[in-house]
Amino acid sequence: MQKIEFQIKPGKPYPHGSKAYEDGVNFSIFSRHAEEVELLLYQNEDSPEPFQIIPLEIDKHRTFFSWHVFVKHLRPGTWYTWRLNGPSDTQRTGLRFDKQKQLLDPWAKAVSDKIWNREVACKPGDNGHCSMRSVVIDEEYDWQGDTPLAIRSEKAIIYELHVKGFTRHPSSQVSHPGAFAGLIEKIPYLKELGITHVELLPVMAFDEQDAPDHTRQLGLSNYWGYSTHSFFSPHPSYCVTPEQGTHQQEFRDLVKALHKAGIGVIMDVVFNHTSEAGPDGPVINFKGMDGNSFYLTDKFDKSIFHDYTGCGNTVNSNHPLVSRFIIGCLEYWVREMHVDGFRFDLASALSRGEDGSVLQDPPIIWGIELSEQLAKTKLIAEAWDAAGLYQVGNFPGYRWAEWNGIYRDTIRRFVRGDRGLVKDVATRICGSSDLYEYQHRLPISGINFVTCHDGFTLNDLFSYNEKHNEANGENSRDGCNNNLSSNCGVEGPSNDLVIQAFRRQQVKNTFAILLISQGVPMLLAGDEFLNTQNGNNNCYCQDNELSWLDWGLLEKNADMFNFVKGMIQLRKRHPALMRRHFLKGQTETDRDINDITWHDADPDHSPQWDSHDAQFLAFSMAAQDNKESDIYIAFNMSAHKIKIKPPVIENKNWRLSVDTSLQSGQELIPPKQQKPLAKKHYSMNPHSVLILENIDSNLENKK
User: Fold this and answer.
1) Pick from 369, 181, 151: which is nearest to 264 by CA?
2) 110, 51 in Cβ contact below 8 A?
3) Average pLDDT over residues 31-59
4) What is the pTM of this model?
5) What is the pLDDT of residues 328-344, one digit of tens each?
6) Mean pLDDT in residue range 128-145
7) What's the CA gap between 367 and 354, in Å, rounded?
8) Which residue among 174, 211, 224, 529 is the one 20 to 30 A from 279 at the CA level?
9) Consecutive H or E run containing 431
10) Which residues are CB-neighbours of 662 under 8 A, at least 6 positions away?
11) Where are the domains of the chain?
């Protein structure tokens, strides 16, 4: 095509990235050590040649460490890359400039990977014919009054999902499967279920080709998305028209629709590493700009990348420039995209200094906590990294919540039948005060979960003793070995009706415990209708029906969905289950009833706290106001029946609310259908959870 020559001006250093104005576009990129910089403009995302190459002059287009240019009359929809040249001495300085390599703009709001070839980017030399590209976008958008939601954390119920996998299966019956738009179509389902927040697996643009060689040879890819390269851009594959640069608009449409339904948006973000991997990995953006600043490298040999993430590199997050990049990125997603919170993957890596040591007060973590723009944003840490740093209960920063892996492991063991755990179980369901109270933190500091994307689904947790990851091509060497699971008698699917019923009961037990626990519960998408991954506990590379949710299971297992929905409703009608502060075992109202009282099967006896065989635990909780009932909860994880006697509360009659051992459809009773117990005793079946409420009949009649 004929070359188009747009006139240029020096431009401005801020904002970084590309910014469209009425009379043209300003471009700016940061590089401390670059000596030559070129901007390449393309007609389309896959154009073979740029229509204009603009060399920048150091005297006109550089301000401190920012290189910038204003292109007159250029319009949104123009695609572009950068080329930077400078010193290359990987061992001494860590710099690896390559004047032929075309780079992505790290601040790009929309990118394309249509012609991307990771293998070529791993080698020196020109990759313009197969590089990723950024596009200038029009950032105008009508939010129609939308703002981030302000749902209090103690009232939150988080639902973790994969944007593509949630609707990609043909059974989802949406118009845009696998896209942000497809998820919008499923909002009525989310609203009916009753969750308050979706936690989206990575939606920042990531490299789907970032997978081991043997995995790619099987036709597999990076599915989960923990391989970010463009932190300001939504992932192009989740967009309906990415070739038009509609990434920002399509994600905003999703956020606005979820907010309209009263559902908040939490993004799973990956600032611990990038898709550029180690020294042999591709040059995409940061490596070709100033990799010695952006990554942790060896003190004596800068060509060696410190890897605390298991992904080849570790972001040097406490470097001032990198810290500013990360905080600016988070503020962008809140300010411009109205996101309600973030879950930080391998967040403990953010607490490491430039030599890899653990900092007591990491600047990046405190910078995020103290940002005024992030003041009302939920911050959730996966408080460990791949190099053994485990900070659950000790993560730096006061208002950060943490994925409570200790809760997960304790509840898994208890439900499968491990003995002698009642003291630990009591601590976990009361908000893990041993982890948080001494720091003056709160029960909401713990995100309680039993399953998540990484590991077995809840169905598989009670169907497999061992992981079955053969489809990943690594002979099942990948994935966690310590699953704390139980196959209930048979490995994998079973036609035995007794085993099937027991597995369903164990799933209901788990949901019941999770949803009555103090703290913030998190559910894995699909668990509510028994989604399975056939025993694969590491589906990071399975962009296929193994990982996609099969919505046909919703109809097949409607009883499970109704149970989970009912348990969420039960939680919401009991403020005593959603406390902001820790339980004290003391009276809090004018009634002579403690906020919590622990029981054995006989209410006059304390639980067997120190017994190595104990598998039973019960407690009663006082209502916090006259709109709520008191509640009695008992767990019997033993293999035999136990006759229990609920405590006597004056002028109140206990009513059966939940018994997970009863037949489907009868195990959860709505308040208006509840009837007083006929006897003072109740025979509690093995491996079951019992919940009683004492709703005042006069109050019920007024509703």
Assistant:
1) 151
2) no
3) 97
4) 0.97
5) 999 999 999 999 999 99
6) 97
7) 17
8) 224
9) none
10) none
11) 153-232+265-276+342-575
3-class DSSP string for 521-578? EEEECCHHHCCCCCCCCCCCCCCCCCCCCCCHHHHHCHHHHHHHHHHHHHHHCCHHHC
- What number of residues does the chain have? 703
Instruction: Indicate the angle between helix axes 405-416 and 422-429, nearest 10 degrees.
Output: 130
Task: Scan for tokens 């209930």, then name that residue.
Answer: 488
User: 377 CB contacts (<8 Å, ≥6 apart)?
Assistant: 148, 330, 334, 339, 340, 341, 342
* pLDDT(698) > 60: no
Is 345 assigned a catalytic role?
Answer: yes
Is the pLDDT at 6 greater than 90? The verdict is yes
Catalytic residue, candidates 154, 307, 340, 382: 382
Q: What share of the chain in percent tops pLDDT 70? A: 98
What tokens were used for 95?
């710099």
Residue-wise pLDDT tens digits, 283-331: 999 999 987 899 999 999 999 999 999 999 999 999 999 999 999 999 9
Alpha helical stretches, state H, 106-220: 118-121, 163-167, 180-185, 187-193, 213-217
Radius of gyration of the chain (CA): 27
Q: At what angle do helices 320-335 and 286-294 cross, to 10 degrees?
A: 120
664: exposed, middle or buried (Cβ count in 10 Å: 0-12, 13-18, 19+): middle
CA distance 492 to 475: 18
> Looking at the domain 153-232+265-276+342-575, which fold is it?
TIM Barrel (3.20.20)
Mean pLDDT for the chain overall = 95
Q: Note the pLDDT tens digit of each residue in 581-623.
A: 999 998 877 777 899 999 999 999 999 999 999 999 999 999 9
Which of the residues 210, 290, 345, 402 is marked catalytic?
Answer: 345
